[in-house]
Design brief:
The complex is a heterodimer of chains A (138) and B (666). By secondary structure, chain A is α/β, with parallel strands linked by helices. Helices cover 44% and strands 17% of the residues of chain A. Chain A has a four-stranded parallel sheet, sandwiched between helices. Chain B has a five-stranded parallel sheet, covered by helices on one side. Chain B has a five-stranded parallel sheet with strand order 20-27-21-22-23. Chain B has a four-stranded parallel sheet with strand order 2-1-3-4, sandwiched between helices. Chain B folds into five domains: 7-138, Rossmann fold (3-Layer(aba) Sandwich), CATH 3.40.50; 147-237 and 328-342 and 511-578, FAD/NAD(P)-binding domain (3-Layer(bba) Sandwich), CATH 3.50.50.60; 239-326, Alpha-Beta Plaits, CATH 3.30.70; 347-509, 3-Layer(bba) Sandwich (FAD/NAD(P)-binding domain); 588-644, Alpha-Beta Plaits. The chains are: A alpha/beta (138), B alpha/beta (666). At the A-B interface, helix 1, strand 2, helix 2 and helix 3 of A face helix 4, helix 5, helix 17 and helix 18 of B.
Chain lengths: 138, 666
Amino acid sequence: MTFDPAIAAFCCNWCGYSAADQAGSAKLEYPSGVRIVRLMCTGMMDPYYVLRAFERGYDGVLVVGCHLGSCHYKSGNEQARDQMGRVAPMLRALGLGEARVHLTAASAAEGPIFAAETNAFVERVRRLGPNPLREAAR
Amino acid sequence: MTDKRKVGVFLCHCGGNISDVVDVKAVREFAEKQEDVVFATDTRFMCSNEGVCRLQEEIRNRSLDGVVVACCTPKMYEDLFRGKAEEAGMNPYLLEIANVREQCAYPHRHEPAKATAKAKDLVLGQVEKVRKLRPLETRTATIHPGVAVIGGGIAGIHASLLLADLGHKVTLIEKSPTIGGNMARLVKTFPTDDCAMCTLSPKMNEAYNHENIELLTYSEVKAAKRSPGKFALTVLEKPRFVTDACVACNKCTERCPVSTAKAPTQVDSEWEMGLSKRKAIYLPFPSALPQLWTIDADHCFYFQRGGKCRICAMVCPAKAIDFTMKPKEREVEVGAVLVATGFQEYDPGPLKHLAYGHHRNVVTQMQVARMLDSMGPTHGAIVRRTDGKPAASIVMVQCVGSRGARGDPLTHEYCSRVCCMVAVKHASLIRKAQPDTEVYILYNDLRAYGKGFEEYYTHSMELGVKFVRGLPGSVRKEGERLLVDVNDMLTGRRLEIPADLVVLSAAMEPSPVNELLAALHLDKTPDGFVKEYHAKINPTETAVKGVFVAGCAQGPKDITDTISQAGAAAMSAAVFLGKGEMTLNPLVAEVDPALCRACDRCAEVCEFEGVRVDPERLVAVVDETACEGCGKCTVVCPTGAITVRQFRKDQILASLDAMAPMAVSP
């Protein structure tokens, strides 16, 4: 049986979330393991959410904001980038590796980019295999 | 929250869009079993009258204090459902949407079983979030009915007139001594060759005399304070040193010693683009409004030589000269601000190969506009600046400072949009007035995109204007003339065109108004112009509620487009003001004073001055009118004291956990 990764996708209201809507409206497909959590801005993306997601068994965490320079709130996506940079060494230390986390951008009009980024990320996580914490809990 | 909640779940079939993929009945049965869910139903169309009535009925009958609607994206009907829930007596912020159409039925339509499982998760995620939500209060603020228009060019004048006609009190603020802006410098306007002043002057007069317009000239906005529904602008009125008693007799200007033939102080006329000199006491141009003379203290001998010269005061029959005048600050309170600060012509000096500023016979199109004016410095003749002799050969150069390479610090990457037609206009006017004059236009691409432009361009060729595709490599002096070296891309030949006058079609760049933009918290697009709310569908509003933008402040455009946009901006402002009150977004940050340690990190990351530490109480205080609710502060707060309503950590985690593969550990 193929492994269907569970992905927590944190999307900002203005770009990532709307891009996902656009991808859906355009009937672009991506695996059903993706669960979107709506944030107003990736600036409110707390590194703790990443750790919590892995603790709860998600296999990967995707964060989709606005393109740099186009943040609805000027610089929230820059803070997200910095915070995700901080969480990377923690993930390495936990043995999860940083490849299970991906920060990207898709504007409200970029449904195809959302779908492509999501598909590529899910594929990467599929190759990485299930979240080791989830395996350990079994 | 330990209290039991009463949550209702409403599942929409979306006429099959959802129910053809997702087993809605299975999701409903799943939802019914969840904690605090007292009721679940499914409907063919939730957004229909029937669906909405059902929602309201169930809220009333079951006293629901939480609702999840599983339907299309919240961007479609979240507002509708929240509004209807409020009508039915529930706090609207206790309703959430589970996006089972765009996020589930559509992208997973080939996997119905998995889509159904995911739909259950999405519904549960929102049920769990709703269980954590708290009722929010929406506050409203009265909007001040007044409006400030900043910039007295054609955009500002047009917008002011429309708003004033609608009955709004308009304060029109202009930094120079007169209104009129750049349009007043243009002798004719393309593509109709209308006299610019004949169309502008009546509007200037109307604005000047309108009972609802207060005109503040020679004034600048120094600071702006935003509070709910109101902007308090601090306007600095510079001293003219001439009182309202001025009778416009011009005797002062006639006798002022500055810029006379032998005077050591020579002042270039800003109005004439440096083609002539002006006195230290002056009226910028004959039909300037208000008709009030102004003393330029930086060049006036009274101020520069310790009060020795008082000639103007002596000759003034109205005793209107007052050397003691001081700058005046005043507060202007308004509900909306319309930014119409216009453009300035690019200075081609840094482009050395074009020799502007090096050879006096290299000029800009704006200078040619002044030459073409029969009232202007050359009385309508196109002449060499060096000796005043008529120019027999004129070479115009396009895209000077526009359409440069990306990252070139000397030029702009954007197209200034008007220069092609400006060159065609000036070339045609010159050919008509002086048919013996050769006029060349060296261009890269000629853009004649507007109504009547192509015909105008074609007509210029009939008038004998010569078009050469290629931009010059150099402009150099040869005897009394200039030699323009250009590679004609269409013939492949290298041409050396002798010219008496080289005219540069210099770019439009934004007026230098950084201070104003900072005061109003406005952003710029990478090209330096004011950033509009949305470049495509909302080009007249800005990200700051109540601030609107029009004309070249937003980007290069011609007069037709400027008028259209100024009208649209005035309409947007009128609609905003007309509502009379605004709802303040409740989804902003709030601080738990018990947890706050006044470390100031929230204020450090805030882009909107939405939070600051009260130095007395030593606690962070949110300015709910300034906070945009982005939540950057919530991440950097070391104690979790600051949160964004509806996006509190426990609320976000509730959905994350509910949709997670592993159950929450006990």
